[in-house]
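Task card 7
Instruction: Convert sequence to structure tokens.
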Amino acid sequence: MKFAIKRSRFQEIVSRFSNKQILVIGDVGVDRYTIGSASRLSPEAPVPVVAVTSVRDKLAMAANVAENLQAFGAKASLSSLVGEDRVGNELYSLLEESKISSSALFRHPSRRTTLKERVIAQNQQVVRIDHETSEALNAAAEEFYLSQVSAAFQSVDGVILEDYAKGLLTKRVLRDVIALCEAEKKFVSVDPPTMGTRLPSDYRGVSMLTPNLAEAEKLSGIEIKDDASLQKAGDHLLQEVGAPIVVITQGKLGMTIFTKQDKPLHIPTFARAVFDVSGAGDTVISMLTLAIIAGASIEESAILANFAAGVGVGKPGTATVSLEELEQYMQMHGGLN
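Output:
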């Protein structure tokens, strides 16, 4: 197989993960899965009546990225601003269960902790209910957050910015956080949002940008419809963001790596069965960043990330992937030699 890694090299890379600590900064929340059965319609409206059998809460958004890092064996810490509410309490409890540091997670009266509730009956999602605010931090909240978060950079090996356009990463917060990463010489990657009105210049100074196709189109202003337009968009983002690495993920088509030194490199997907694509981007940026920080090349990191995503999309919901699962999957599909 063209895109494979020697088993000894795989073990060398992943053995370093446990010594790495990564700070994840971004919008956070809780995913709630309310599961039951529906056998009749409501007499009140033409909607199904769901008899609930279980409720499961899971870390969401940037917190899911931190959970992915923990699953890969790294040490993850999470930084955001959440509300003084019951969902915030639940978030702290879930972080404690997952052994993810919340020392840089702060509460502020101006915020509301995001809760996304999915009602599922007969394995089908009936409705999703979002409890959230997407308003940008006000000046007081910005000042509070930036005064608190700076101490979190000193003990980490790298930073991931998870931008969901829910209000934490304002232009000022982005600018100051990226400047802190540069001052502390920390590798910093960013996953941009599909929603919102970001400009490439908002991310100037990051080490790696990982948009999907829709995000790359929006940031570059270039419609991506073939290899030529894909390369044009990638080159544009390299220039405008000033990042050494841009990785454009393309779902079932894999991902393409753009650097200033080399020609674009396309790595195909290694997914064999797709159950749920939610959270695949979280898995990709987690592995890409962690592997690079652990000394892997960008090509090796992308191969690991693509295989990890292949495992993840075969699971329901925003699932994490263990190193054991990754190694087995790579072995099964020719990723190790």
